[in-house]
């Protein structure tokens, strides 16, 4: 399988804490993206990191990429109840194909 | 809203019915996608249309038939489906460039096959 795999599958934290999710993949990539999905809705793009980048920030989000380990992490700082959702990583390989993982389900307890 | 609209939001159909899912994007993108999302599985890419031509078809059964009449509209025609086809069907669009980047998703059609 070429899909990314997120870890952990589920995460439950208190409001205000940081949440870290990891993604591993198998093939060479052009870029890696993180998406968020609220229950029963479509996915919303959060952030993209290119293969030649190592870290990127957007608001309370921080993404890192280690192409030697074929892994990425998404850090959400100072979490809020509204951050409760499923988070997916998606890789775009050198053939321009998207592959999504199975997601991490994040619950932020008020 | 993401600029991608899917209808209907929910659909219940029998195995002998014929129905269609509709997707419209208002973003000026030139690529559109159908994905299937089942519980505990990665998103499954079904079809990709780029510049109104089908460029990817991931071994999808013929009971699913896509149609892309123009760059803003995408349909998925359904006939003689099976209960295991029950899932959330997501449409997405993007702007084709040397490297595919951001996907914009609709809210999906939750399909139940009885």
Give a short synopsis of this structure.
The complex is a heterodimer of chains A (110) and B (114). Chain A has 110 residues and is mainly β.
What does it look like?
The complex is a heterodimer of chains A (110) and B (114). Chain A has 110 residues and is mainly β. Chain A contains no helices and eleven strands. In chain A, strands 2, 4, 5, 9, 10 and 11 form a six-stranded mixed beta sheet that branches. Chain A has a five-stranded antiparallel beta sheet with strand order 1-3-8-7-6, with no helix packed on it. In chain A, a hairpin with a 4-residue loop joins strand 7 and strand 8 (71-76). Chain A is globular and about 40 Å long. Chain A starts with a strand and ends with a strand. Chain B has 114 residues and is mainly β. Helix content of chain B is 0%, strand content 56%. Chain B is built from no helices and eleven strands. Chain B has strands at 4-7, 10-13, 18-25, 31-37, 44-50, 53-57, 64-70, 73-79, 87-94, 104-105, 109-113. In chain B, the strands form two sheets. In chain B, strands 2, 4, 5, 6, 9, 10 and 11 form a seven-stranded mixed beta sheet that branches. A four-stranded antiparallel beta sheet of chain B has the order 1-3-8-7, with no helix packed on it. In chain B, a hairpin with a 2-residue loop joins strand 7 (64-70) and strand 8. The model of chain B has no long low-confidence stretch (mean pLDDT 91). The interface between A and B is medium-sized, with 22 and 23 residues.
